[in-house]
Design goal:
There is one protein chain. The model has no long low-confidence stretch (mean pLDDT about 95). The protein has strands spanning about 5, 10-15, 20-25, 35-40, 45-50, 60, 70-75, 80-85, 90-100, 110-115, 115-120. Helices cover about 0% and strands about 50% of the residues. The chain is an all-beta fold. Strands 2, 4, 5, 6, 9, 10 and 11 form a seven-stranded mixed sheet that branches. The protein has a four-stranded antiparallel sheet with strand order 1-3-8-7, with no helix packed on it.
Length: about 120
């Protein structure tokens, strides 16, 4: 079992940057693929980025490519999402989640979820 806690959300201006962090607890963190998902009011949940337990070949949604970078530190049991060139449409609650799927790309691939952190981007 994995417990996840996000931090780093907040208010940013368009064009700015934020770095989200996810702290995991549990014995087998390095066996899980990890992801960041987001949900904005009235919109479907979206997998923004995911990184396999191998640490290779991260997945990015088209909306995140070239702007967001996901990374993991298995020794510290941390997952990060560096978000640059933020846009107002990035405003959402961002969730850290864990999956036993090697290359998760759908929300249903994730089994363990954090509580979420709000990101608001002003224009």
């Amino acid at each position: 079992q994995v417990q996840l806690a996000e931090s780093g959300g907040g208010l940013a201006q368009a064009g700015g940057s934020l770095r989200l962090s996810c702290a995991a607890s549990g014995r087998t963190f390095n066996g899980y693929s990890m992801g960041w998902l987001r949900q904005a009011p009235g919109k479907e949940r979206e997998v923004v980025a995911a990184i396999p337990w191998t640490g290779r070949s991260a997945y990015y949604a088209d909306s995140a490519k070239g702007r967001f970078t996901i990374s993991r530190d298995d020794a510290e049991k941390m997952v990060y999402l560096q978000m640059n060139s933020l846009k107002p449409e990035d405003t959402a609650v961002y969730y850290c989640a864990a999956s036993v799927v090697t290359n998760p790309q759908r929300g249903d691939d994730f089994y363990y979820w954090g509580q979420g952190t709000q990101v608001t981007v002003s224009s």
